[in-house]
Design brief:
- There is one protein chain.
- This protein has a two-stranded antiparallel sheet.
- It is elongated, with a radius of gyration of 52 Å.
- The protein is built from 13 helices and two strands.
- The longest helix is centred in the C-terminal third of the chain and has 53 residues, at 252-304.
- With 370 residues, the protein is an all-alpha fold.
- Among the domains are: 1-137, no CATH class; 252-301.
- The model is unreliable at 312-316 (pLDDT under 50).
- Helix 2 (15-39) packs antiparallel against helix 6 (118-135).
- Strand 1 (50-51) and strand 2 (54-55) form a beta hairpin.
- The N and C termini lie far apart (186 Å).
- The chain crosses the membrane at residues 15-35, 56-76, 88-108, 120-138, 158-175, 182-200.
């Protein structure tokens, strides 16, 4: 085992790449364990790193580590293998932290636990696959054993031609929506040929450009998507959630749309309430105006009929008091009409009789005896 390690890793100069690969794997696993425990709100575990109200994502620490590891690998001479391995380890740790929040960088939004957050796991899996193939000694965009020939140049031309063909097939496969086939095909060119020949996925750019909605190719692409791709995608999602946790939170933009819809509904309710209150105020003002007009008309009518004796014209008197005063005036008028001239002038019905005037003595008659 040690001899194989020395022969395939150390002797071929892949020791820094191995350090990067191991550090990348360990850092990704520990990061996912950490964030899942934080999400479950375990009391005995750490909490999110914050500075006041600011949540500092671990992509920040990843960028710092990648910068330190990259500069260190460039600054250390090739002869210092240990330092090169250390720089590769630091770079691998930073790369894992950055790719674990690849979806945040892609969408510029905190979509870590949403459906869009699965893009981070896809990016990590791609990095692991590419690094693993490089560790196995498989070179991208070329065949193993083919190298430039400084003599005749035939092998050089063959290598360049194969490189161009592989690049064309890789671009065509990616345009057809087959990401994994295109990436792995960079190391296994036979997959690029298969991906370039087969029909594209329904939502890919190639399908939008080349397939009509009612064409046979588009129908075949939809049928193959349902029969082959969907089961594979469900299996991939199961593996991702087993390793990285469930991405089941509501996306922030959907929450924003829901909040905006609730705010619009609240404003509509307030506007309806204000319109109803204004309508009630207008109706009340109209009723009050009608009552005032009726009272003014009643006062004018009473003024025209005020020539009667004892008539009372209510002026600025509340409605109930005016009615009582009119009733009393009508009663007095009725008593005056019944009595007529039976009482002397100045007599008020219901009052006392005025005192009788003094009587003068009668003059003596001539026939009266002295």
């Amino acid at each position: 085992m040690i001899e194989m390690f020395d022969e395939r890793i150390v002797a071929t100069g892949r020791l820094p790449l191995l350090g990067f690969f191991v550090a990348f794997l360990i850092t990704f696993v520990l990061t996912r364990v950490n964030v899942r425990l934080i999400r479950s709100d375990a009391r005995w575990w750490f909490r999110n790193v914050t500075a006041g109200d600011l949540h500092i994502h671990h992509v920040v620490f990843g960028v710092v580590l990648m910068l330190a590891g990259g500069i260190g690998s460039l600054a250390v001479p090739d002869a210092y293998t240990g330092l090169n391995v250390s720089a590769a380890v630091v770079f691998g740790m930073g790369s894992a932290l950055v790719l674990d929040e690849f979806a945040l960088i892609l969408h510029l939004s905190d979509v870590y636990w949403t459906e869009k957050g699965r893009a981070s796991v896809d990016a990590v899996f791609v990095a692991i696959a590419v690094t693993g193939l490089l560790l196995l000694g498989i070179r991208p965009l070329g065949y193993e054993g083919i190298a430039p020939d400084p003599g005749t140049g035939i092998l050089t031309r063959v290598y360049v031609a194969s490189l161009v063909v592989n690049l064309v097939f890789a671009v065509l496969t990616l345009l057809k929506g087959k990401i994994w086939t295109g990436l792995i095909g960079l190391f296994v060119p036979a997959l690029l040929i298969v991906g370039a020949i087969r029909v594209a996925r329904p939502g890919s750019p190639w399908a939008r450009w080349r397939y009509a909605p009612d064409s046979r190719r588009y129908q075949r692409a939809v049928r193959r998507e349902k029969q082959v791709r969907r089961p594979l995608i469900r299996g991939k999602i199961w593996v991702q959630e087993f390793i990285a946790g469930r991405h089941d939170l509501i996306p922030p933009e959907l929450l924003q749309r829901r909040a905006e819809a609730a705010d619009r509904a609240r404003r509509r309710r307030l506007e309806r309430a204000e319109r109803r209150a204004a309508a009630r105020l207008a109706a009340g003002a109209e009723r009050r105006a009608e009552r005032r007009a009726a009272r003014r008309a009643e006062r004018r009518s009473a003024t025209r009929d005020g020539s009667r004796r004892g008539a009372v014209v209510p002026s600025r008197i509340p409605g109930g008091a005016a009615s009582r005063m009119r009733a009393r005036a009508a009663a007095r008028q009725a008593r005056d009409a019944r009595t007529g001239d039976d009482f002397p002038p100045g007599f008020r019905p219901g009052g006392r009789l005025p005192p009788a005037p003094p009587r003068e003595p009668a003059a003596p008659q001539p026939d009266d005896p002295p």
